Structures are given as C-alpha cells and as structure tokens.
C-alpha cells in the first residue's frame, strides 16, 4: 500500500501529468467562450442552446472538431484526476477544518471536470446529449419524492451560494490567490480585468440558475429547471433582458479567455 501510494504521488507530481491537467483549464475556457458566443446570439435574436451540450455540439460540427473534443476530453479528465490527487496529497500541511474544506473543494472540482470531460468524450465518440432536457427530467424525478424535493431545494441554494462566491471572488480579485506571479504592466492588468469581469458574469448566471431551481422546486414545476440554457433565456425575457444577457455573454467569453490564460499561471 505504501509503494502504491508513493507511486501515485510521484505520478501526480510528474511534469507530464501537470501539463495534461493544465490542458483541462484550456478546455473549460473554450467551453465558456462558445457558451458566451451562443448566449450573445440569443441576445441578438438568434437561436441555440447556451449550455454545455449545446456548446460541445457546436465544437463537434466545426472543422477539426473531433480532434478538439478528444483534446478537451483528455484535459478535463487529467484535471479531474489532479483534483482527486489533491484530496489525498495536497492537504498534508493543513489541519482540522482547513483540511476538510480543502478536500471538499477539491472533490467538488474533481466531479465538475469529470462530468465535463465525460460530455466531451460522449460527443467525440459520435454521441450527443441535451443538458436542458436532462435537467428537467432529473428535477421531475426528484420532485416525485419529498426527500428528492428537499435535495433539489438544497441544490438550488448551493448553486446560489456558488454564484455569490464567484461574484465575490471577481469583485475582490480573490481569484489571483490561485495564480503564480503575473507579468507586470499591461498583460497582468488585462488578465486581472478578464478574471474580474468573467468571475462576476459567471456568478450572475449561476445566481439566475439557482433561482430557477428554487422556483421550480417550490412551484413543483420541473419544466422551469432547464439548466444554464434555461437560465440565460429566462434572463433574456426580463425587462432590459437583451442588454443583460448580452453583458453576461461577453462576461462568459471573458471568463473563457481568462481560463485559457489561467492554464499557464495557475499554481499547481
């Protein structure tokens, strides 16, 4: 067991594994840029699905899309494994509550990137998925049972909290703590600006999503729980919604570009 643990830690510390994991940030960045482009199209009267499956579907249909999907799949899975390794090897210097908090955050990020990677892999193999339909179906299943409805309500609250944390991180530039030294001058300022705008835009989008989940749960209407695409389209239908959606779309694109840059400067 000790030899297996040492081998796993050595693999997690290897340069090749680190580079593969950094590619996961590039994949997430590409995904957010495409979602932002689709959302901007919605704001200007276009159509499309501004969510994970819609964005990956567009990538699949682009020139060289299959190769790009495999790159994103491998990057996301490597990054998920990196966060999984951090649960065991990255918290040794911490103690008590700090260790539990770090393990919870790393575990959550491992799940997120594993799910994104699985979706990339599904499309790379010629399959497809519908995030909005899946969200509605899952919500309907949970609402059929009191415990499930309570769980869905908790998920809505959790999404709201995460959205608030993103806004807070952007407004206070807290995200810079995760980066190694940025270049001075215009480049560093630009990266910080991208992160600030991007984090706040994503937090706002998650906040709308969280509200829709809570409303769907309270009203027992799973059709209102349609994931990120439904949240952005709901935003568009509000007063001045076109302008709000356009701003959020540009912010999501900024977040995507930031994630690509983050792949270079992320402290790992």
TrEMBL record:
Keywords: Membrane, Transmembrane, Transmembrane helix. Residues 23-85, 108-173, 197-265 form the DUF1206 domain. InterPro entries: DUF1206 (IPR009597). The chain crosses the membrane at residues 25-47, 67-89, 110-127, 147-168, 203-220, 240-261. The keyword Membrane applies. This is DUF1206 domain-containing protein.
């Amino acid at each position: 067991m000790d030899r297996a643990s040492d081998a796993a830690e050595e693999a997690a510390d290897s340069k090749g594994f680190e580079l593969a994991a950094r590619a996961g940030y590039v994949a997430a960045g590409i995904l957010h840029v495409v979602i932002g482009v689709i959302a901007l199209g919605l704001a200007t009267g276009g159509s499309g699905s501004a969510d994970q499956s819609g964005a990956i579907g567009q990538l699949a249909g682009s020139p060289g899309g299959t190769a790009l999907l495999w790159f994103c799949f491998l990057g996301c899975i490597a990054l998920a494994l990196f966060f999984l390794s951090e649960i065991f090897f990255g918290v040794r210097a911490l103690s008590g509550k700090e260790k539990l908090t770090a393990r919870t955050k790393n575990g959550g990020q491992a799940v997120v990137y594993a799910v994104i990677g699985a979706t990339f892999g599904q499309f790379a193999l010629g399959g497809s998925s519908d995030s909005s339909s899946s969200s509605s179906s899952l919500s309907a299943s949970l609402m059929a049972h009191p415990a499930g409805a309570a769980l869905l309500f908790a998920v809505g609250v959790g999404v709201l909290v995460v959205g608030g944390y993103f806004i807070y991180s952007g407004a206070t530039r807290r995200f810079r703590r995760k980066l190694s030294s940025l270049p001075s001058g215009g480049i560093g300022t630009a990266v910080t600006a991208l992160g600030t705008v991007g984090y706040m835009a994503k937090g706002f989008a998650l906040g709308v999503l969280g509200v829709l989940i809570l409303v769907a749960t309270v009203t027992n209407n799973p059709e209102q729980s349609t994931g990120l695409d439904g949240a952005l389209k709901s935003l568009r239908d509000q007063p001045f919604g076109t302008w709000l959606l356009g701003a959020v779309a540009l912010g999501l694109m900024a977040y995507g570009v930031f994630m690509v840059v983050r792949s270079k400067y992320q402290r790992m």
